[in-house]
Amino acid sequence: MTDKKLIRNFCIIAHIDHGKSTLADRFLEVCGAVNERKKKDQILDSMDLERERGITIKAKAVSINYTRGDNTYILNLIDTPGHVDFTYEVAKSLKASDGAILLVDATQGVEAQTVANFYLALENDLKIIPVINKIDLPNADIDRVTNQLFDIFGFKKEEVSCVSAKEGKGIKDVLNRIVDEFPVPPGEIDKPLKAILFDTSFDPYRGIVLFIRIFDGKISLGDEILFIHKGRKYKVEDLGIFVFGPIKRKELVCGEVGYVFCNIKNPQEVDAGDTLTDPYNPTASAFEECRSISPMVFCGIFPASAGDYNALRDAIDKMKLSDPSFVYEPDSLGSLGHGFRCGFLGLLHMEVVEERLEREFGLDLILTLPNVLYKVMEKTKKVIDVESPHDLPEAQNIEEVLEPFVRATVISPLEYMDAVYELSKSRRGKFVKTDYLGKDRLSIVFELPLAEIVVDFYNKLKSVTKGYASLDYEFIDYRKTEVSKIDILFNKKKMEAFSLLVNKDKAEHKARAVVDRLKELIPRQMFEVSIQAAIGSKIIASSRVPPLRKNVTAKCYGGDITRKRKLWEKQKKGKKKMKQMGNIQVPQSVFLEVLRM
Asked: CB-based contacts of 215: which residues, under 8 Å, 6+ apart?
């Protein structure tokens, strides 16, 4: 049995791209957990998608041994994402940790998610070690970043460690600080079992994998465990710890982080954040359920082939298991058939879920345009949630519409302040306050409609600040607005997949932009395609895609012109009939291109 005094449970938190996964790689190398044959970048990022995008999507837990003197310490490391869309993953990881390494880029300094994650760790009463990374880069400014850590968080200069995760400088110093400064896990082995389920995943052969941290008591093979919030009992079939794969154990004791199999097949039976205990001698105090994070962005996901509906349903069930912040319900659209209405934390979250469904489950999907959740009060005073354009009641039945607002914090160099103001103003933003972070950076807070920032605000912000600004946002409340539903018609037939809800003042501009883009993207058919944007019965933008033309008079040489005219007239009638009867072929790439607008 492992001596609890030799265990340290900690996570790495930082803004996106500040080097969390690279630091985790160096910890594994220095501790001898990975040999040259297995060595690669982003060792803990097991998804191909994570490696390609260079981001962490799922939190990862791994146990590594660190020998110092006569003692071998067990370091349970949890690598977390940095993007604002995956804050839920960070929050779960912090519940299983006793300490956190706050990583800051020596060239970028403190960013928006650095601040957000610091306060998340503080809420969980974690010991925090500040570490400055990327000190090997020519433009690293260690003094400036150290001053920022003092000005914003109150860390003294002697509390800050400097490392180069890429080159391995300063790694042993941080490992020694983890051992010396992070607390020994609390809890007693003689108390009733109390463990937190901080993550789950799906094994196609053995069912659901439960990732747990034990706070009191122990779990042994063959034990029965109770999920307190779900009220279900299961028998432990297998358990152990993770290094680069499962290492089986006969028991896990208080202070340890590991995995458990209970032969659970149905994803609906477990919830991350649940408390595990002994059903016959339960713990007196369960953990609070993980605060559910409401989805911010909604879109429809439909199979490209109607026969793949059941496969999509099973895939979405399994996706929900590894990503509790993803929500869904069945949906149906005339032009796309049966599918699901899905909710996401942001646009990156939506793109990641789509790519995972296509890669991991081999599906071909079509997504509708994303919308935020509006609250609509009808004339009857009934309030309904509107997640998609076809849920919006008729205009004459609407009393008022409320849209979600967020408090957005932008951290930017001083020189780009005016550009940030202008961008936020163009997105209906309301200035709240400015705080100076040292001499050359400032934090600007705005209140903005969520609909204005979920799609491309982050990209525009990076563009106007030459990549230096960062963004964090949190939901505030719902406020009164006026929205219009724009319908897109192809040859006077409504295409529900392209319908969208926009602010009334921007409706005409948006409609023209979508119509112009569709004109470029829709491939020419054998008949003319007219593209129209309508609000109610009023057409506000239109265009046409000319038909492919066959030269029907190619074999006519010389002779009377009336013969050619007859052939042209016959062709014209045929095209008209095809326009009325033909199905317009819309490639999946068109849906995605319009989506990115």
From this structure: 185, 186, 187, 194, 195, 196, 254, 255
**For 44-58, 148-162, 179-193, 271-285, which range has the lowest pLDDT when averaged over its residues?**
44-58
Instruction: Quick: pLDDT tens for 333-347.
Output: 766 778 888 888 777
Which residue shows structure tokens 């053995």? Answer: 206
In angstroms, the CA 323 to CA 543 distance is 41
Q: In a 3-state reduction of DSSP, which class is residue 481?
A: strand
441 touches 412 (CB < 8 A): yes
Strands (E), 306-463: 327-333, 337-344, 365-367, 371-372, 374-378, 383-386, 398-413, 430-437, 441-449
d(CA 84, CA 165): 23
Residue 181 makes CB contacts below 8 A (sequence gap 6+) with: 99, 127, 129
The one-character DSSP state at 465 is T
pLDDT digits (tens, 9 = 90+) for 15-35: 777 788 788 888 888 887 665
Amino acid residing at 116 = A
pTM comes to 0.68
Residue 302 one-letter amino acid: F
Q: Which of 418, 447, 594, 576 is nearest to 519 (CA)?
A: 594
Euclidean distance between CA atoms 573 and 576, whole angstroms: 5
Instruction: Evaluate if residue 190 carries a pLDDT over 60.
Output: yes
Q: How far, in Å, CA of 369 to CA of 362, rounded? A: 22
Q: Whole-angstrom Cα distance, residue 531 to residue 256?
A: 61
Q: Read off the pLDDT band of 203 (50, 70, 90).
A: confident
Q: What is the mean pLDDT of residues 125-154?
A: 89
Domains of the chain: 4-181 (3.40.50.300), 194-277 (2.40.30.10), 297-369 (3.30.70.870), 375-481 (3.30.70.240), 484-595 (3.30.70.2570)
CA distance 385 to 370: 15
Neighbours of 265 (CB within 10 A): 9
Could you tell me whether strands 207-216 and 383-386 are parallel, antiparallel, or unpaired per DSSP bridges? Answer: unpaired
Both structure tokens of 533: 């944007």
What is the distance between the alpha carbons of residues 324 and 334, in angstroms, rounded to a whole number?
Answer: 29
Task: Break the chain down into helix, strand, coil percent, rounded to 5.
Answer: 30, 35, 35
CB 244 within 8 A of CB 38: yes
What the block records as the tokens of 592 is 């995605």
**Would you say 240 and 261 are in contact if contact means Cβ atoms under 8 Å apart?**
no
Whether 479 and 403 have beta carbons less than 8 Å apart is answered as yes
Percent of the chain exceeding pLDDT 90 equals 6
Give the pLDDT confidence of 453-476 residue by residue, as tens digits.
876 787 788 788 877 787 878 888
User: Residue 193's closest CA among 221, 165, 226?
Assistant: 226
Residue 49 carries which side chain, given as an amino acid letter? L
Residue 369 above 80 pLDDT? no
pLDDT reading at 57 higher than 80: no
